[in-house]
Amino acid sequence: MTNKMSVNVTPGFNFSTILGCSVHDMKNSLGIIQDLVSQLAKDSQHSENPQFGQLEFESNRMNNILMQLLVLYKIDHARFSLNIDEYPAEDILNEAVAQQEVLLALNSIAIKVECEPDLYCYCDFNIITSALGTILNNAQRYAGQQILFSAQQEGQFMVLSIEDDGEGYPETFFQRQDNVQSQVDFNTGSTGLGLFFAQTIAAMHVNENIHGSIAIDNVSSLGGARFRLFLP
Known about the structure:
- The chain is α+β, with helices and mostly antiparallel strands.
- 47% of the residues lie in helices and 19% in strands.
- Helix 1 packs antiparallel against helix 2, helix 2 (50-76) packs across helix 7 and helix 3 packs across helix 5 (125-142).
């Protein structure tokens, strides 16, 4: 005979709130794991082992994903606001690259940064570098050997671009890019979170009623995919 147990959900139960709190807890625990990994790498006689680098990178990537989920949760609950200030565009590019240095080295991907030193933009530095870091991470998965990371002024926008020499975005991706939920693919592990986060954060950057945005295409100067972030 099978025993069955019924559970009564407490009135007022809000799954999104539970999820938000859980993400915060996971992020704290992951921070402890990251510290332990760094310490183990320092103490190990085999600290140059690439597995340490891979482990450190993956833990950082998980932390970045959790941070983005937490930000999106706060945005959805009207508990988030940007910290806008003026920054050199070159600093933004260099910080995003620094977040990916371990994986770039492991995958032998050459990245070229192009940016005039006198270019500045108004943005939330930490949020924008996080968004760009995620897109840069995705670019490494599909690049052949090269990535071009650049910034340039185009009219009222500062345009931050990530281009690769891979095969480019598939046509089916363009057909469904307006619906982020349709981008979830359990076979490939794709969730579209990186683009959705970048799109959401870009739109929150406003200057004189002009909103930021993103664009993707296969017009890379390297022959592959191109992602562009437009900041007003």
